[in-house]
Amino acid sequence: MLAHPRSLALLLSVGVLTGCAVGPDYRPPEIALSSTFLGQEGVDHRQVQSKADLQVWWAAFDDPLLTRFVSHALEQNLDLAQAAARVAQSRAALRYADAALLPTGNVSVSAARAYQSVETPLGQVLDATPGFDRTGSAYEANLGASWEIDVFGGLRRGREAARAAYEASEAGAVATRLAVAAQTADVYVTIRGLQARLAIARQQVETRRQLLAMVRLQYEKGIAAELQVNQAEGSLTQAEAQIPVLEAGLDSAMNALDVLLGVQPGTNRAELAPGAPVPVTPGLSATGTPAELIRRRPDLIVAERRLAAANARIGVAISEYYPKFSLAGLVGSATAIASGNLFTGAASQAQGVLGLRWRLFDFGRVDAQIAAARGQEAEALAAYRLAVLRAAEDVENAFSALIKREAQVGILTRGESSLARARENSLAAYQGGVVSLIEVLNADDNLLHVRDAKAQAQTEAARAAIASFRALGGGWDARDAGSNRLYSDLSTTNRR
After folding, report:
1. What single DSSP character describes residue 100?
2. Buried b (16+ CB within 10 A) or exposed e, 426-436
3. CA 151 → CA 11, 24, 181, 311, distances in Å?
4. pLDDT by residue (tens digit) across 106-121?
5. Rounded-to-integer distance, Cα 466 and Cα 475, Å
6. What are the tens digits of pLDDT across the range 353-363?
7. Residue 149 to residues 13, 130, 313, 472: CA-CA distances in angstroms?
8. How would you list the strands of the sheet with 104-115, edge to edge?
9. In the beta sheet, which residues pair with residue 107?
10. Which domains does the chain have, with CATH numbers?
């Protein structure tokens, strides 16, 4: 405690003017990354019809219904509504931290009326006093103000932590936005893929019905044996059994899409019922580098901002080592009678207080709080580094899946052509009595399997492209974000 008021005033002035703040100043961590992605060359040299702008990558699929569904999801999705609510909470916490640095004021007004009992010792003494009135009134009106002077920067560190947490919540809202767009596109592509597989299965059923009719006709004429009829019937039921499974998967995918759009399941089923091809996979206009990925992906910005908040909370904990100074004042008026002189000079009152609070004998707990804050900062740093590695892993996995799935589509396309010719030849040979029905059914099964596998590969290639766009952080304009911070683009996201 200071011995002289001038020394105290000097300390307060120096602390306020210099703006000192205890605790470590934040510096973004340096992460060692390669200059390019492993699969970047293969992705950049793909033969594609169009290339996607990362900001609105879903438009490059050239599917108006897909574009419309993604737009509706970004407006109506309930996960986005929750993310926007979390941003509002963080914004309120930041305003609270800002307000803690400012003086507070309050107005208090009170009126009281009392009736004194003469049976109490005090009442008996007062009752013996000439002119004693058992009924009394008291009125008071005051204007007070107080201010905690942030000499050592604990409150400023708290505001710094609140601002970083707010920026993390905004980045989290953008990350949710990207996830919703990618999930919507992924489910839509899955629906188109299932519809393609259903069309193949139904075509196969029709083909086997025609084959069964032909075998029955031959059986009636005595050309074919009953065994061949049974084989054809069994093959038909095997093809028919695949349809309910695919239809159940299609119903589930349509319901999932409706939930992403924030509407009752079944709302868009009629619009989706007419089949359409799986959207053609576009190219990527700019994959960027792993270093650019850190500035682009909002989930990495979330992790970095949480690290900044944890760093600032160390300063908040360290500030508890030092004394807290506060100023308080009160100006008002008080009177004990209802004579109308509440605001006269005689009724006025004033008070000024210089406060000091110092946890001088509580340093053990302060030490524990600082150790906990440092532990949280170390955890946040490890989480950030892990998030960077996993982001790079996401990109590499998505690139690899995209390249390999498109290669698979090419192989299956060639196989489909060969097996289609083999099936035609086997059917002609069967009709000529050269081969048995088993040969025709085997050729039919092989053709069905390769067509179904091709439809699945096309679907997975489109899904891998969507995963690539999501892994690269596409879907928002990151050009105005610098030093891993978010600015105006993020502050307007999801405020609908």
Report:
1. T
2. bbeebeeeebb
3. 8, 16, 47, 19
4. 888 888 888 877 778 8
5. 11
6. 888 888 888 88
7. 10, 52, 19, 46
8. 104-115, 135-149, 324-335, 348-357
9. 143
10. 8-101+150-323+363-491 (1.20.1600.10)
